[in-house]
Structures are given as structure tokens and as C-alpha cells.
Amino acid sequence: MAQENRPHLNITLKARLFDLDVSNGARFEYRDRENKEDLWRYRNKVTVKFPFELTNFELQPYVAEEIFITLNDDNVDRNRFYAGASFNLSKNIKANIFYLWQSSRSDKQCKDINTLGTQLKFTF
Questions:
Q1: Cα 81 to Cα 4, 5, 8, 21, distances in angstroms
Q2: Which of 16, 46, 59, 90 could bridge 54 with an S-S bond, Cβ 3.0-4.6 Å?
Q3: Number of domains in the chain
Q4: Model confidence over 1-27: pLDDT tens digits?
């Protein structure tokens, strides 16, 4: 398996718009690949959290869209759409359950992936 290093810079802006929590995360990454050409890639993810909570677990629904642009050729080569809900398991643990649809383009072919995912975040 070929090795790849990805140093990157992340910038996230957060705001409130019409009672919605909106964030825009930008990532610039350098893909230092062992057996392929090195690439620069830009990723941008916009997330919108809705201002209400559902059920006794206080589920907070959200949607997000993320694009991946290879800067060497200015192509959008991947797109991700997320829909999910996050909730607190305890004071220091937050859980997230989501659906992810990913569409990738390479060599003039499209490949779609549908995933159901979970995530745990620990804060100290």
C-alpha cells in the first residue's frame, strides 16, 4: 500500500442566520503521494443546524454539503451531502448519527456511495 501525507490548513467561520447555526469550513491540503503525482486540494463544507431539538434525547438536526476541488486541474471531483442529528450523551460526550451520500468523479466515471454513519466527540 502506497503512503500518502496530507498536511493541511483549516479555517472555519460560524454565524447565526435566521435562527440557524451556519458554519463554513475550508480546508487547503497538500497530498504528498508516494506512487502518484502530488496534488493540492481545496475542500469546503457548509453546515446548517436547525434551531429546534427533537425527542427527549434533544436531537438537533442538521444538513451539510461538502465539495472537493483538485486545484491542479480545477475540477470538482467529489461531492458529499450529509443529513443527520447530534445529541449529548453526557456533559463531555456528544453523539452524531447521519446519512451520507458521496458522488465521486474520476476518469469520466461517476461513483455514488450511500452510508449510514455514527460519530462520538469527547471534550475535556
A1: 25, 26, 22, 17
A2: 59
A3: 1
A4: 888 899 999 999 999 999 899 999 999
Q: pTM higher than 0.70 for the full model?
A: yes
For 52-114, give the secondary structure using H, E and C: CCECCCCEEEEEEEEEEEECCCCEEEEEEEEEEEEEECCCCEEEEEEEEEEEEEECCEEEEEE
Distance of CA 18 to the CA centre of its chain: 23
Range of the domain at 84: 4-122
Q: What are the two backbone dihedrals, phi and then psi, of residue 65, each rounded to the nearest 5 degrees?
A: -135, 130
Tallying the residues shown for the chain, one arrives at 124
